[in-house]
Amino acid sequence: MKKFFSLLLVCVLSFCCLTGCGSKTSSTGSTGSTQPEQSSYEKELMSSEFASGLHHVEITMKDGGSIALELDADTAPLSVANFCVLAKDGFYDGLTFHRIMSGFMIQGGDPTGTGFEGSSNSITGEFEQNGIANDISHKRGAISMARSTSPNSASSQFFIVHEDSDFLDGSYAAFGQVTSGMEVVDEIAEHTPVEDKNGTVKRENQPVIESIVVID
């Protein structure tokens, strides 16, 4: 099944249509909306070591440089646990940043490098418009989950915010923050050639993720 992962709807006017990218109430807190029953995958995530507290990961790029992040599972447990489990399984190793918009974000985590695919599982979107409290703002350096128009379609694709984009708050599940290596994000965002205003990057020009390692 193909999904078109995007930063959509909330930014359609500002960015010329940026397509590319629980129990009945989430354990992160609810604003009143009813969430679907947790899938078996989500139940596994919530019972993992990554579903609470702060966790640290490091993204190492093939052409040099690394990006260190602190992930907040007390705010977004499904997003953090999903990301960490995929990273520990080596899912991200060798994948790319396939969509890059300088001044906005860099997006990666698609195994095909097209923006249409993800991992075999999806998770509930942990953001206010989906009935789940999340106070992590999409400021410079935030990491967040990409998704399709469906609020519960986040899978493996993620994006790192290049410049403050808090208009995404409440609509996308931010789950952590870069702690060092923003110069690497800047290099990727500002110097990767793109094909269009939507940030499409030709496969041969896509920056390659050598590995994402979970430190703790």
- What Rg do the Cα atoms give? 16 Å
SSE class: alpha+beta
The sequence of SSEs as H and E is HEEHEEEEEHE
Number of helical runs?
3
Secondary structure: elements and pairs:
Layout: H1 40-46, E1 54-61, E2 66-72, H2 77-88, E3 97-101, E4 105-108, E5 142-145, E6 158-161, E7 174-180, H3 182-191, E8 209-214
Antiparallel strand pairs: 1-2, 1-8, 2-7, 3-4, 4-6, 5-6, 5-7
Task: Give an overview of the whole structure.
- Strand 3 and strand 4 (105-108) form a beta hairpin.
- The protein has an 8-stranded antiparallel sheet with strand order 3-4-6-5-7-2-1-8, covered by helices on one side.
- The protein has helices at residues 40-46, 77-88, 182-191; strands at 54-61, 66-72, 97-101, 105-108, 142-145, 158-161, 174-180, 209-214.
- 47% of the residues are buried.
- The radius of gyration is 16 Å and the shape is globular.
- It contains 3 helices and 8 strands.
- 13% of the residues lie in helices and 21% in strands.
- With 216 residues, the protein is an alpha+beta fold.
